[in-house]
Design goal:
Distance between the termini: 78 Å
Helix content: 55-70%
Structural class: mainly alpha
Number of strands: 0
Strand content: under 5%
Number of helices: 3
Length: 118
């Protein structure tokens, strides 16, 4: 092999290394000094009981699922209102079937205690 065969590879390697060094130098030059945030109480003036980035308790999982069920209901009902007059009775039947499935899901969540707050 001749050295001219490797010339494009070496040029590309030099460009990549130069770009990495340049970006690193730019990051160092533009770095801001990070200081801890010193703020007062939040959430209605109460002192925080935990870190703001802490994990949510598992008891919020059923609440999230119920919210998503109602959120999906609205996602399907808005476009349905636009096409119900054009499609006719079958669209009404399909929406009531969908609402029945949603109501069955809410009943299941109620039975499992998703709405108990104690």
């Amino acid at each position: 092999m001749q050295t001219s065969d490797w010339q494009p590879v070496v040029v590309l390697l030099v460009l990549v290394v130069a770009a990495a060094v340049l970006l690193h130098a730019l990051a160092i030059a533009l770095r801001t000094v990070r200081e801890p945030l010193h703020t007062g109480p939040f959430s209605g003036g109460l002192e925080p009981q935990e870190h703001p980035l802490s994990r949510f308790h598992v008891r919020w999982y059923p609440v999230t699922m119920v919210f998503l069920a109602f959120d999906m209901e609205m996602l399907f009902m808005y476009p349905w209102t636009k096409v119900v007059s054009a499609v006719g009775t079958s669209a009404v039947v399909e929406m009531f079937l969908f609402l029945g499935v949603l109501l069955a899901g809410v009943g299941y969540a109620w039975r499992e205690g998703a709405f108990r707050w104690s």
